[in-house]
């Protein structure tokens, strides 16, 4: 069963909720202060942009450095090709996102608040822009709408900061991290728009309420984008702690026969279909177990699709989306992608499969940002889950030739 | 305790390989000619080589950084 929190209220067909309806349904935005940060800690809310980092901890790290001059960036870049949840949230509940951004700005004592929204997400940007016009002038004056370029890395936190500072959405070397020195050298909170929308509700209803939404000790709800071989692909809201099987049922069930599920998107990992069903979707639980829910992508690979071909295409996309600043990322991902593509085409050289394993280890941790780490984590999962297919395909040319 | 580590700005490094020649004890090269820096603090005995590598990098991509070794932060509080 769906659990609605962000999407409670008018149905999706009604479009963006107006400021009047929003305020009537949820009341006015409460105070954003240090007590709210404590509440966020207790709520168990973790970031929904990919890294599942505890939101309260992040707000405090900015608040403690702020001196009233911090900056907040609401991250609605959503560059992940399989994700739709951020743009859907912004299109349907723009005022929750704006409330969350203002609460964050109050709590960390920010003097600037930027709404960084993928310029390719037209409906979302339009809804936010209309929502801003409905806000009182005093709030409007605090908020700046900013279009994020349509690249995969534009949503990375230092790329967002760099874009605001210099107009270039390419990641920066760290340290300093944005919470230390970001926009104009000030402590900067970069927070995913879904994370902010949850915070806007936690501020109203409290941590115990948020906890009670989840199941099996997981907290809150999660937005997921379900795609691939399901009857009804799309964005859904579910209770944290529900299983992949329940999610697939909500998406109308698997059409055909599933071979594997990609959890977390291009930075996520494959899970064999027979193991995926019982998996529990709990962002902090998965993080603690060394996995990741990433940005909430659940994509089903059909038995008839070639997993090597699909994996090679994803890796190629990630290689092309390297910001080409760091050698190991640019050349490493290019080499990995080329070898994977040769294997998928059954045109591999003898050395290609061993090279994939070697390069995967070689590239990890050697970019300025985590783009190459996400790419090799994805490839590693493909090598694990589709090992027999990789081995057979890597030897295919040799066998044909002999 | 404060320790010194080698830090690299990957966005600046253009793979000129000089550092690996000057500080082979800690820097090797990957398959594409970019430096692989062995993790961990630099002992005093190796500091002259480390400093030479830092000073010779043509794009100022290398730095020696003092890092405080703090115990890892406690995991986020999560009532259950
Ligand atoms: C290559 C790359 C791309 C990213 N793209 C996005 C994005 O489009 N949207 C987003 O919210 N976070 C993105 N992130 C994560 C951000 O760096 C950052 O962790 C996040 O916005 C923090 O918000 P959260 O803690 O609420 O998740 C990306 C990270 C990487 C490494
Ligand atoms: S690691 Fe890759 S994506 Fe990240 S800054 Fe370097 S080149 Fe760009
Ligand atoms: S000397 Fe500088 S530019 Fe050359 S490889 Fe080393 S870090 Fe890179």
Helix and strand run of chain B: EHEEHE
Task: Outline the biggest β-sheet of chain A.
Answer: 5 strands, mixed
Main β-sheet, spatial strand arrangement of chain B? 1-4
Total DSSP helices of chain B: 2
Percent of residues in helices of chain B: 10-25%
SS-based structural class of chain B? alpha+beta
Distance between the termini of chain B: 35 Å
Uncertain runs of chain B are: 74-80
Radius of gyration of chain B: 16 Å
| Total number of domains of chain A | 3
* Helical coverage of chain A, percent range: 40-55%
The helix-and-strand class of chain A reads alpha/beta
Number of domains of chain B: 1
Number of strands of chain B: 4
Strand order of the largest sheet of chain A: 6-5-11-8-9
Shape of chain B: globular
Largest binding interface between chains: A-B, 29 and 19 residues
List the helices and strands of chain A in order.
Answer: HHHEHHEHHEHEHHEEEHEEHEHEHHHHH
How confident is the prediction overall: mean pLDDT of chain A? 95
Short description:
Chain A is an alpha/beta fold. Chain A is built from 18 helices and eleven strands.
Word description of this protein:
The complex is a heterodimer of chains A (402) and B (80). Chain A is of the alpha/beta class. Chain A has helices spanning 19-26, 34-43, 55-66, 85-92, 94-108, 122-134, 137-140, 157-166, 193-205, 207-213, 244-250, 273-276, 283-288, 307-320, 327-344, 352-363, 371-385, 387-401, and strands at 70-76, 110-118, 143-148, 188-192, 221-228, 234-239, 242-243, 258-263, 269-272, 280-281, 297-302. In chain A, strand 8 and strand 9 (269-272) form a beta hairpin. The radius of gyration of chain A is 21 Å and the shape is globular. Chain A starts with 18 loop residues before the first helix and ends with a helix. Chain B has a two-stranded antiparallel sheet with strand order 1-4. Chain B is 19% helix and 25% strand. The model of chain B is unreliable at 74-80 (pLDDT under 50). Chain B has one domain (2-68): Alpha-Beta Plaits (2-Layer Sandwich). Chain B is globular, with a radius of gyration of 16 Å. The chains are: A alpha/beta (402), B alpha+beta (80). The interface between A and B is medium-sized, with 29 and 19 residues. The site of one iron/sulfur cluster (SF4) has 14 residues of chain B, from helix 1.
């Amino acid at each position: 069963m769906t659990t609605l929190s962000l999407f409670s209220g008018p149905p999706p067909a009604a479009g963006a909720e107006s400021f009047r309806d929003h305020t009537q349904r949820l009341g006015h935005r409460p105070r954003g202060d240090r007590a709210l940060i404590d509440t966020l800690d207790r709520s168990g809310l973790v970031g929904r942009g990919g890294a599942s980092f505890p939101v309260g901890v992040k707000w405090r790290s900015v608040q403690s450095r702020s001196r009233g001059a911090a900056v907040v960036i609401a991250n609605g870049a959503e560059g992940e090709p399989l994700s739709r949840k951020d743009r859907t949230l912004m299109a349907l509940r723009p005022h929750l996102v704006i409330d969350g951004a203002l609460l964050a700005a109050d709590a960390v004592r920010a003097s600037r608040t930027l709404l960084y929204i993928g310029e390719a997400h037209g409906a979302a940007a339009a809804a936010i822009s209309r929502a801003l016009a409905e806000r009182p002038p005093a709030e409007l004056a605090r908020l700046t709408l900013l279009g994020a370029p349509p690249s995969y890395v534009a949503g990375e936190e230092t790329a967002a900061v760099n874009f605001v500072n210099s107009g270039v959405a390419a990641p920066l070397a760290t340290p300093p991290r944005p919470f230390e020195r970001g926009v104009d050298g000030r402590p900067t909170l970069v927070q995913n728009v879904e994370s902010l929308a949850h915070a806007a509700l936690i501020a109203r209803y409290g941590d115990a309420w948020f906890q009670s939404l989840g199941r099996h000790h997981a907290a809150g709800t999660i937005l997921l984008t379900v795609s691939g071989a399901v009857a009804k692909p799309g964005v859904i809201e579910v209770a944290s702690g529900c299983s992949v099987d329940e999610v697939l049922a909500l998406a109308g069930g698997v059409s055909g026969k599933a071979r594997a599920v990609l959890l977390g998107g291009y930075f996520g990992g494959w899970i064999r279909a027979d193991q995926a069903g019982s998996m529990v979707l709990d962002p902090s639980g998965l993080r603690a177990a060394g996995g990741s829910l990433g940005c909430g992508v659940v994509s089903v690979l059909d038995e008839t699709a070639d997993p090597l071909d699909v994996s090679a295409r994803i890796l190629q996309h990630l290689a092309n989306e390297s910001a080409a600043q760091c050698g190991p990322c640019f050349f490493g991902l290019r080499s990995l992608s080329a070898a994977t593509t040769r294997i998928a085409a059954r045109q591999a050289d003898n050395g290609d499969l061993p090279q994939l394993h070697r390069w995967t280890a070689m590239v990890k941790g050697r970019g300025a940002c985590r783009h190459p780490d996400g790419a090799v984590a994805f490839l590693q999962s493909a090598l694990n889950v589709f090992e027999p297919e990789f081995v057979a395909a890597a030897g295919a040319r040799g066998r044909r030739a002999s | 305790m404060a320790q010194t580590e080698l830090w690299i700005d990957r966005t600046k490094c253009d793979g000129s390989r000089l550092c690996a020649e000057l500080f082979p004890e800690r820097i090797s090269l990957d398959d594409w000619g970019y430096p692989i820096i062995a993790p961990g603090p630099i002992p005093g005995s190796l500091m002259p080589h480390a400093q030479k590598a830092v000073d010779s990098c043509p794009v100022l991509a290398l730095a020696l950084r003092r890092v405080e070794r703090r115990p890892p932060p406690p995991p986020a509080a999560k009532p259950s």
